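Renewal narrative, Specific Aim 1. Our central claim is that a sequence can be written position by position from structural information alone. The example that follows is taken directly from our test logs and has not been curated for this report. It begins with the structure tokens describing the chain, in the order in which they were read.
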């Protein structure tokens, strides 16, 4: 490969190569140079210190530019001095663009020992951008094999880490075939695959060299995760050229390359983002996340690498892409408004740091509008590896970063809410980490993510979700139990909403797996409801029927009772007796009112299902079982017997009901025991009865409940309705009146 003449000539002075780069003086000041102001302004002590650093860096770069012969680090104090200068300034402020050409050429030319070259490469942290020309010049040194294999590996790791800091990538994309040739090297292959993964476009997937990588994948290297990741991207772009069946799940795909530069990069990023207008909230009104210490949150912001601030401002009117050109791309760091998104929606070039998509509403809009599977694939790999490496309770010594991890999980959850679908990598993370979770660390964030788990087979969900949750559920606090129930309710609602969307867009072929068919959905939802019914029954016993817990349980069944009419799902499951009877006999009017509303909706849905079944307008794939109707009738008899006819102890025929012999009831010595649970004497309603008596008979202080009968009974009902007991009203008007009329007709 032919190198640029200017980069080989060590006596060539430093030049500013394009408008995107700044000279060393501008780097020293932290902004683009202004000659007039720099002459007029009086230098402060800090400016003088910066001048000293600037002069030292200029001396160091000049020294490395003129190095010709191999110099021993131990014997040369001058080399030690300039090397330490470069290291300290790079780690504190980052290097200016002009320094990369010199330092890369020295490190890769083999002029110095590997110890020095390694330290130089680890010091290459940009203050703003990395010039593409410097990278191309450095790559050309790989052709002549002047440096050792360890230095080549370190350079590839540096290139992967700094990929989004490179100001342009056109020439780098032109070297795709050159990088591809390094797949033969077993040591370099993992990092070359990672680099190719970042560079790959659709035209690369159509290359005839696919045969070569498939050969290495299947026979030479075996089922390596880095090759699998690259092949999966090729298969996405050109499925006809990749016939290999790839494994569906893999924990880690690429080795972590950013270790030596991680801390310095995060420091420079935070400083640059604080001073950049691109770090301001976007036009859709979402606030930009605060800068973080850890890599996941620093990568949540779109990197401003392809152009600096001044260039973006100056080129504001030039960043529209020619809609008739198919070769242009629009960098996402220039995307600032929704109108820009609409104008350039087919030409966006996403960064390699796919985490930046999560916190950018414009890019999330793009993911919603354009079903680009390559974005989901890249995000899947990035998020899966990040969650695995940084989980607070799965990785030793990560406890100190719990708050940062919470913020990251919160960002993932908000992105899932925006897209209205869960991420596959997040589901895999939950399945792996829930058995190790203590139920306390990041509780709110984990349970929110649980609500977006996509529908899977029962065997998979039972072992990976239900069983770990149940162990924590039974041994944790009341608040944790309520939080789990709320999360499972949201999970059920998300599945049902997905089903409604699928009914509205049956032509959408995105979801076609076996588990997302109607039968798969019905079975999955039924298992979830049975699971919640089981843990709810046990929890009520453990917590002595606490009203707070009962509210969340009944809130879940408010969704269950309306699945047929509201979500068009042919499924209704009654709550277990361990939930129904504690709610019916509850001492809290809110719980009783909730139960009444739930039974009213069950009746409405069952009647509609029976009418549709009898009308035979269309052949129904699913029919409600007779057991569902039978269980509903048993519950309705118990409710009517308690609240209205005062005959629950005689007529309740449920195996777990409240039917008792009269002889046993008489032994309780409770007067008028038959009326104990009607709407006057019920413990949840007695407070209303007392207030009604005070208003109807203000002079009577005996509180004689037997006065509420006849017309007074109807007045009492109207009083209850006026207190906001809507559920009780709907239940009485829909069910009790029909039972009363039926009994009168029989008489």
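The sequence written for that structure reads:
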């Amino acid at each position: 490969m032919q190198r640029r003449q200017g980069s080989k000539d060590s006596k060539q002075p430093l030049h500013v190569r394009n408008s995107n780069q700044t000279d060393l003086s501008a780097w020293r000041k932290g902004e683009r140079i202004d000659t007039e102001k720099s002459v007029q302004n009086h230098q402060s002590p800090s400016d003088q210190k910066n001048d000293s650093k600037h002069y030292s860096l200029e001396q160091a770069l000049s020294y490395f530019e003129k190095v010709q012969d191999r110099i021993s680090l131990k014997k040369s104090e001058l080399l030690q001095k300039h090397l330490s200068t470069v290291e300290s300034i790079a780690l504190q402020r980052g290097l200016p663009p002009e320094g990369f050409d010199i330092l890369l050429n020295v490190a890769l030319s083999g002029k110095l020992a590997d110890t020095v070259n390694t330290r130089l490469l680890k010091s290459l942290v940009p203050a703003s951008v990395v010039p593409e020309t410097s990278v191309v010049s450095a790559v050309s040194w790989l052709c002549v094999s002047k440096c050792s294999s360890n230095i080549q590996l370190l350079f590839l790791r540096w290139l992967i880490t700094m990929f989004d800091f490179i100001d342009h990538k056109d020439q780098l994309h032109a070297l795709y075939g050159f990088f591809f040739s390094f797949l033969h090297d077993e040591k370099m292959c993992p990092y070359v695959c990672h680099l190719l993964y970042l560079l790959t476009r659709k035209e690369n997937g159509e290359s005839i060299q696919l045969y070569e990588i498939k050969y290495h994948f299947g026979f030479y290297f075996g089922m390596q995760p880095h090759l699998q990741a690259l092949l999966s991207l090729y298969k996405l772009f050109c499925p006809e050229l990749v016939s290999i069946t790839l494994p569906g799940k893999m924990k880690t795909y690429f080795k972590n390359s950013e270790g030596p530069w991680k801390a310095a990069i995060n420091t420079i990023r935070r400083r640059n983002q604080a001073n950049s207008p691109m770090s301001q909230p976007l036009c859709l009104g979402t606030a930009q996340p605060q800068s973080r210490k850890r890599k996941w949150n620093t990568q949540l912001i779109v990197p401003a690498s392809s152009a600096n601030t001044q260039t973006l401002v100056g080129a504001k009117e030039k960043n529209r892409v020619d809609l008739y050109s198919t070769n242009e791309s629009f960098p996402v760091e220039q995307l600032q408004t929704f109108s820009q998104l609409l104008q350039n929606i087919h030409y966006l070039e996403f960064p390699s740091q796919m985490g930046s998509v999560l916190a950018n509403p414009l890019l999330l809009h793009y993911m919603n509008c354009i079903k680009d599977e390559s974005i989901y694939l890249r995000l899947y790999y990035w998020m899966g590896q990040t969650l695995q490496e940084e989980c607070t309770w799965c990785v030793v010594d990560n406890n100190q970063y719990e708050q940062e991890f919470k913020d990251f999980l919160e960002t993932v959850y908000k992105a899932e809410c925006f897209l209205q679908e869960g991420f596959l990598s997040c589901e895999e993370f939950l399945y792996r980490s829930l058995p190790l979770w203590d139920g306390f660390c990041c509780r709110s964030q984990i349970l929110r993510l649980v609500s977006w788990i996509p529908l899977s087979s029962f065997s998979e969900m039972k072992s990976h979700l239900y069983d770990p949750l149940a162990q924590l559920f039974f041994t944790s606090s009341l608040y944790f139990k309520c939080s789990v129930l709320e999360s499972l309710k949201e999970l059920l609602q998300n599945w049902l909403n997905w089903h409604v969307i699928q009914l509205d867009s049956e032509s959408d072929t995105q979801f076609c797996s076996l588990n997302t068919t109607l039968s798969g959905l019905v079975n999955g939802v039924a298992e979830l409801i049975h699971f919640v019914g089981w843990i709810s029954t046990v929890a009520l016993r453990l917590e002595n029927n606490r009203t707070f817990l009962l509210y969340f349980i009944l809130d879940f069944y408010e969704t269950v009772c309306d699945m047929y009419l509201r979500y068009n799902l042919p499924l209704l499951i009654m709550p277990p007796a361990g939930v129904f009877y504690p709610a019916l006999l509850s001492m809290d009017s809110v719980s009783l009112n909730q139960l009444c509303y739930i039974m009213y909706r069950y009746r409405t849905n069952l009647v509609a299902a029976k009418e549709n079944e009898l009308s035979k307008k269309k052949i129904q794939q699913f029919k409600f079982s007779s057991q569902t109707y039978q269980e509903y009738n048993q519950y309705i008899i118990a409710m009517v017997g308690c609240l209205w006819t005062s005959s629950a102890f005689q007529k309740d025929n449920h195996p777990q009901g409240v039917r008792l012999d009269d002889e046993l009831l008489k032994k309780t010595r409770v007067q008028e025991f038959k009326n104990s649970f009607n709407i006057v004497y019920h413990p949840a309603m007695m407070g209303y009865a007392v207030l009604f008596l005070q208003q109807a008979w203000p002079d009577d202080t005996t509180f004689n409940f037997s006065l509420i009968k006849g017309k007074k009974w109807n007045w009492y009902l109207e009083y209850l309705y006026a207190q906001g007991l809507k559920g009780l009203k709907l239940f009485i008007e829909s069910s009790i009146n029909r039972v009363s009329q039926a009994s009168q007709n029989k008489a």
